[in-house]
Write a structure and sequence with these properties.
Helix content is 45%, strand content 22%. α8 packs antiparallel against α10 and α13 packs parallel to α14. The protein is of the alpha/beta class. The chain folds into four domains: 108 residues, Rossmann fold (3-Layer(aba) Sandwich), CATH 3.40.50.2300; 161 residues, Heat Shock Protein 90 (2-Layer Sandwich); 129 residues, Response regulator (Rossmann fold), CATH 3.40.50.2300; 113 residues, 3-Layer(aba) Sandwich (Rossmann fold). α15 links the parallel β20 and β21. The strands form eight sheets. It has a five-stranded parallel beta sheet, with helices on both faces. The protein has a five-stranded mixed beta sheet with strand order 9-12-13-15-14, with helices on one face. The structure holds adenosine-5'-diphosphate. The site of adenosine-5'-diphosphate has 20 residues, from α8 and α10.
């Protein structure tokens, strides 16, 4: 039984002893009683000690009990107070309650039962109020936590987007192949960081019931081919074999493809991680006990899990102890997330295992209505799908990239430019509107706007409503790091035609551009940028080049050349060295940064073989340039 601290504020000795006698007969709690004989002591005790319940005499010598109560309440005392009065009057009752008393009792009518009931009610009311306060506090805390997570997700994803994106770009540009290994290490680690961040976010979103599930009809063989292709590389690297067998199953299942993949890949990853020799086998079948549930078994020949650990591994942050000493990475969140995701997909995960023999993790998932489908075994297609995804589309058209973070704007701009489309940038919604207005005035409208959401001056969601009013047919796609439930639907409602999440996935951007932008005929002419300050020489070279079936844009200054490079992808740069506002080498440096694959030719009167920039130049055309030299150049560009 807990102890209830009671303060008795009573100046009359007889009244105190009489009431105390009654209280001593009450047995539902143990009471620890302190007495205060005057208002001053009472206030001090109410303020400083932990009091659960207070009896307060109405008349304390010269001081009125109600005044004392008001004072105590204003000082923050919030435990229940029962007033004791000499006689019953209705007005006294009302004043006492208004001043913050919970109940009031007439002294000469006191009985054990009455006192006991009053104390019980007062304490129960206190508990209810306390619970309510705690609940409100917890709700507020949870809201704060979610806000914090949304903010954290945005803050962390933005720099990671830049790191992952630029590293990928560097790896793909041949000019840095000597750094491939180092770059791969950076990429691997930043991707890992991103995965951990996603795990933390997933877990907290699931816990706050904020995780959104997108159900669609998913082609099982295609999805499992993706998973199998990716994971067999991981298995091979460890010298393990990954096999997939299948019973007859429906061709399509109705589920959330992303979450399904996440679960199965996590289980296969674990199987590979905790297996040193042998194999990992995936088996696909239908559940014996539920006709519309698909079953995925993942069996490994690994270290196994002790029986008493099997239940715990689905708890967040649970790892079997020797994982740490074995130095296999992991956060202990994967299975907890997979388990909760499986539940969200109307499914389940369980495991059987034997130490030193291996484990089988079984994931079952609601497959939706499958009765009218053809059942056949899953077929793994050997075509490596990555290539198809990675293929760079050849686009034209104009794209406006809007983001307040310089690095991200440039990164997205680079990706778009690589497809051949023209890019302009703006750093907030207001500037984007100005760009659009100007482009329509100049009769060079945009085909697509890629728009960040959180930006100073004017955010993306505000901007899109303006854009949609003036240019209802313009495609505006949101690029956002916000991943909370409902975000996508809200953005689409505002007028965005699609939402791409940060960090941007190259393949996703390419797929979007391929869908939205006009496609370039592959047979189109190569685009040359000619930088030559001498106007006559420039027009002569342009004319000669044009006879070779190429498109030529001319810049007479370094500044103009750099502007052109920033908004368009050229296949060849032919530049003079001495320009009125700088050097052709400066132009080459900007070009190498913006379009690393562009063919670089320098027109020069002098020998530059020993120049420090030589490694960035593919060929040097000796001035004066003739048609034969230009023909040779065009030939080289076509095979580059
Ligand atoms: P982690 O990030 O540590 O892999 P998980 O939640 O995915 O976190 O797994 C939790 C723990 O369960 C692991 O640390 C490991 O001890 C155990 N475990 C999971 N899968 C296997 C498996 N296939 N074989 C042996 N142990 C496993």
């Amino acid at each position: 039984m807990s102890e209830v601290n009671v303060l008795f504020v009573e100046d009359d000795e007889d009244d105190y002893i009489l009431t105390l006698d009654l209280i001593n007969d009450i047995t539902f709690e143990k009471f620890n009683i302190t007495r205060a004989k005057n208002a001053q002591t009472a206030l001090m005790l109410l303020n400083e000690s932990h009091i659960d319940l207070c009896f307060l005499d109405y008349q304390l010598g010269a001081v009125n009990g109600i005044e004392l109560l008001k004072q105590a309440r204003s000082l923050g005392f919030n435990a229940p107070v029962i007033m004791l009065t000499g006689q019953e009057t209705h007005s006294l009752d009302e004043t006492a309650l208004a001043a913050g008393a919970d109940d009031y009792l007439v002294k000469n009518e006191l009985t054990v039962a009455r006192l006991s009931r009053a104390m019980r009610y007062a304490l129960a009311r206190r508990d209810i109020a306390y619970e309510r306060v705690e609940r409100l506090k917890a709700e507020a805390d949870n809201k704060l936590k979610n806000q914090f997570l949304a903010h954290l997700s945005h803050e962390l994803r933005t720099p990671l987007t830049a790191i992952v994106g630029y590293t990928e770009l560097l790896i793909h540009s041949q000019s840095h192949s000597y750094l491939d290994e180092e770059l791969s290490i950076i990429l691997r680690n930043s991707q890992h960081l991103l995965e951990l961040l996603n795990d933390v976010l997933d877990l907290s979103k699931i816990e706050a019931s904020k995780l959104e599930i997108f159900l669609s009809d998913v082609h099982l063989s295609v999805m499992l081919t993706d998973i199998y292709t990716l994971m067999s590389h991981v298995a091979q690297r460890k010298g393990l074999t990954l096999t997939l067998s299948s019973d007859a199953v429906p061709e399509y299942i109705h589920t959330d493809a992303t979450r399904f993949k996440q679960i199965v890949m996590n289980l296969i990853n674990n199987a590979i991680k905790f297996t040193d020799v042998g194999s990992v086998a995936i088996n696909i079948s239908m559940c014996e006990n539920s006709a519309n549930h698909l079953k995925v078994d993942i069996t490994d020949t690994g270290i196994g899990i002790a029986h008493n650990h099997l239940e715990k591994i689905f708890q967040p942050f649970e790892q079997v102890a020797d994982v740490v000493s074995k130095r296999v990475g992991g956060s202990g969140m994967g299975l907890a997330i997979s388990y909760k995701l499986a539940k969200l997909l109307n499914g389940d995960i369980h495991a059987t295992s034997q130490i030193e023999v291996g484990s089988t993790f079984t994931f079952t998932v609601d497959a939706g209505e499958t009765a009218d489908q053809l059942f056949k075994p899953v077929a793994i297609h050997n075509k490596p799908k990555e290539h198809a995804l990675q293929a760079l589309p050849a686009c034209c058209g104009r794209v406006l990239v809007v983001d307040d973070v310089d690095d991200i704007r440039k990164l997205i701009g680079l990706l778009v430019k690589k497809t051949g489309a023209k890019v302009q940038c703006a750093d907030n919604g207001r500037h984007a509107l100005l760009h659009l207005e100007q482009s329509y005035q100049n009769n060079t409208p945009y085909d697509l706007v890629l728009m960040d959401i959180h930006m100073p001056e004017m955010s993306g969601d505000k901007a899109v409503t303006f854009i949609k009013k003036s240019y209802p047919d313009l495609n505006v796609v949101a690029i956002t790091a916000a991943t909370m439930k409902g975000t996508k639907a809200k953005l689409i409602e505002l007028g965005f035609s699609d939402v791409i999440s940060k960090p941007v996935d190259q393949a996703e951007i390419y797929a979007l551009l391929k869908n939205v932008l006009p496609q370039k005929n592959q047979e189109e002419k190569p685009q040359f940028l000619l930088v030559e300050d001498n106007i006559d020489a420039a027009s002569a070279i342009k004319m000669l080049l044009s006879t070779q079936d190429v498109d030529v844009t001319v810049a007479h200054t370094r500044k103009h050349a750099e502007e052109l490079i920033q908004s368009f992808t050229y296949q060849c740069l032919l530049t003079d060295i001495n320009l009125p506002d700088g050097s052709g080498f400066d132009v080459i440096n900007v070009l190498k940064y913006e379009t690393p694959n562009c063919f670089v030719a320098v027109a020069s009167g002098e020998d530059i073989t020993s120049h420090g920039m030589r490694h960035k130049i593919h060929t040097v055309l000796k001035k004066p340039i003739n048609l034969a030299a230009l023909k040779g150049l065009v030939e080289k560009v076509r095979v580059h």
